Amino acid sequence: MNVLSSYFGYIVDIITDPLLLFNMAWATLLGILVGVLPGLTATLGVAILTTLTFGFPAKTAIAMLIGVYIGAIYGGSRTAIVLNIPGTPANAATTVDGFPIARSGHAGFALNVATMMSGLGSIIGALFIVTLAPLLGKLALQFGSWEFAVLAIFGTIIAGSLTAPKDPLKGWIAGFLGLMISQIGLDEITSYPRYTFGNIQLYGGIALLPVLVGVYGIPEILMSLKRTTKAEVALDFSKGKKELSYRKTIGKNWLNIIRSGVVGVFIGVIPGVGEDVASWVSYDLAKRSSKEPEKFGNGSIEGLSAAETANNACVAGAIIPVLTLAVPGSAPAAVLLAALWIHGVRAGPLLPIEHPEMIGNVAAMFTIATLLMVIFGLIITRLFLKILLVPTEILMPIIFVLCVVGTYVLNGRMFDVWIMLLFGLLGYFMRLNDFPAAPFVLGFILGPMADTNMRRALMLAKGDLLPFITRPVSLVLLIAMVLVMISKYIPRKRGAKNE
Prior knowledge:
Blueprint: H1 3-15, H2 18-36, H3 42-52, H4 58-82, H5 92-140, H6 145-163, H7 168-181, E1 185-186, E2 193-194, H8 208-226, H9 246-252, H10 254-269, H11 275-289, H12 301-325, H13 331-342, H14 351-354, H15 358-379, H16 381-384, H17 392-411, H18 414-432, H19 437-460, H20 467-470, H21 472-498
Antiparallel strand pairs: 1-2
């Protein structure tokens, strides 16, 4: 089936299905709410909603999860602009210029510009899903066990390097810890129990959802309860309508918007990097190419536009490798990958064969969710800012209950709740000691893929490792992996010598 025909066909299906449209609407609104609340992340929002969509048809559940993902990344810009606190890590770059604009009395203008740029970024991303995903899918069909094994380790290394720029070693340690923990349970090839210590509960391995909720949710709750400082609020919406023009803003920034959207998509495609890196890279590029670089950091519209366009475009980029390679481009995309499997959709190179309509359908869901996000953003998200008046001491216990309930309903057993709490403590320790969670989660997800394909490759080659360097794609990935590690190591040694 042609991707474009499935794309446009499913847009019509969504619009003419009131129940599906309603479910997407409230899920997108929920995502915006999650993004508005500092301390809650898009990953947590997608994880919690995943636990609540078991009873939904697969396409409805996927559409809702995409809605909450897009909404959460966008919603974080609200607090970034009016509170100088990014609602999610993806909106950290938004604070640099968004808050100065709001503090100057143009809060309403800044919020609406962020809404428009987020919408444009998502639309650019949807175009890439339609065009790039099928090409990447065809390339992925050429992959064998050698390439998938190297790709899994490559993704973990990349995630570790980019999420721990000060000390990449901590990122790599976190990633390989995730790879090791993913080996718990029965071996997929021989059914031999590994690291179960006779505990029958571990024979099936550790489920992804308790790990995700634990590593991301519990540390966020504990860190939020530790914060005692109150943020400065810039809620003056009185200026902006007459003094500043939205049309001129888009007209002056069209190149910046396209560049940031493309950068966001391609950074999203890199496994484990995510929206925060995309927004910072785009912000930096916008500053370097700007005719007014001195305005950056003091309320630059270009800076705000670059950050918000890139982080929402990155969402689409993160979904592309999920669909074509079964490799998530970000932590929320990792949960989305798990949700696809839970609902019987096996993402990866065979997806275009088993579900030829799915890539077009996902792009259509993405487009509709973006339109809903823009509508909600322009109409009612200012009301959501009132929720910030709810004390953290009340809000966080409610979130904790949702984490526990969401984990319990996964299999209806307390064992998963204990696992979630255990990984919550691990995640809290990692947070305090600057070990990033993203490579850990990515390693946990990619561990079975790395293990199974590595052993299958060795069996096919009768124990010979040469195919890993004689097959072109595998060799390119290995060289790229080594270069990434060396590039992170050499500057640190030079810096140390200079000191």
